[in-house]
Amino acid sequence: MSWLVTGGAGYIGAHVVRAMTRGGEDVVVYDDLSTGDADRVPTGVPLVVGSVLDGELLERTMREHAVTGVVHIAGKKQVGESVERPLHYYRENVTGLQTLLDAMAAAGVDRIVFSSSAAVYGMPDVDLVTEDTPCAPMSPYGETKLIGEWLIAAAARAHGIRAASLRYFNVAGAAAPELADSGAFNLIPMVFERLEAGEAPRVFGDDYATPDGTCVRDYIHVEDIASAHLAAAQHLRDAAEGTSLILNIGRGEGSSVREMVDRILKVTGNEQVAPEVTARRPGDPARVVASAGRIREELGWTARHGLDEMIESAWQGWRRRHD
How far apart are the two ends of the chain, measured CA to CA in Å? Predict the structure, then answer.
């Protein structure tokens, strides 16, 4: 099969492209390079620069490269920004997906792996979040991901598209320093940024109903995210028409913010630094940890990487970019 990977020059997308090419899949990268980096695209992999809102270019790309499936990773993903710019997020994430699905239909492409998010769940009051946990997103970003799942499921029912929507939790780490996350929007790079500035890392609230009072999250290595996309793509190759899977990608293990900060300080040689506890951020649930049983049953997939691997690999990438 030949796969079009939208957003394949981004942090997560580049890891997915790497996993798929190493897994023997033919890949074409489609990216507008607004946050992606062309240098992340492996030598020999075609790169088409374009927007997911450009249906004509999408359809032409699929036809010219004989694409038989799509891995859709392109999209806007910052929760705070989505609150400030909801129309922008709905246009890019919802209208963009609709445009992509239209182009797929026109080109006769009937398989899609969709990068969704645990943000669809909102603030679930459960120990482990299963795929059947009610969805109540708390941001326009989370809403666009849930609507995206609905769009794909409807297309699967109506047009026989084979689909897998992957809800991933807190992504971290890097397969190689040059593929590391260049932003500072997640916990690990946020701590790196504070340390680089000579400031103490922040812990937002220590009065939650958790063992150490800080939020508990399920952290997942980006290489595991990538291998899950490959497993989903390979599963869809022989799936029945109308297949529509929704799967969590997580380790099924919770780690508190304080535990993660302590690990980061140790890996970076800053154990003498005391974290600064500040007020809670609005909307932060106390605990969000994935149940990863369904993806294991459906795809035979399990996460392989641990917390220290995530932190150490992210640190190597951070130093490469900032030294």
Answer: 41
Question: And the tokens for 54?
Answer: 């450009």
Q: How far is CA 181 from each of CA 15, 34, 171, 176, rounded to the nearest angstrom? A: 11, 14, 10, 10
Residue whose C-alpha is closest to residue 128's, from 245, 217, 205, 225: 217
Single pTM value for the model: 0.94
Instruction: Give catalytic residue positions.
Output: 141
| Residue 262 shares a structural domain with residue 167 | no
The CB-side HSE value for 180 (13 A sphere, CA atoms) comes to: 24
Helix extents (H) in 216-278: 222-237, 257-267
Instruction: Tell me which residue range forms the domain holding 312.
Output: 174-217+252-322
Listed residue (116, 23, 34, 100) closest to 61, CA to CA: 100
Give me the sheet containing 2-6, strands edge to edge: 47-49, 26-31, 2-6, 69-72, 111-117, 162-168, 244-249
Categorize the per-residue pLDDT at 184 as very low, low, confident or very high, splitting at 50, 70 and 90: low
Residue 282 has pLDDT above 80, yes or no: no
Q: Which of 232, 249, 266 is the last residue before a domain boundary? A: 249
Burial (0-12, 13-18, 19+ Cβ within 10 Å), 215: buried
CATH of the domain at 153: 3.40.50.720
Same domain as 266, residue 126: no
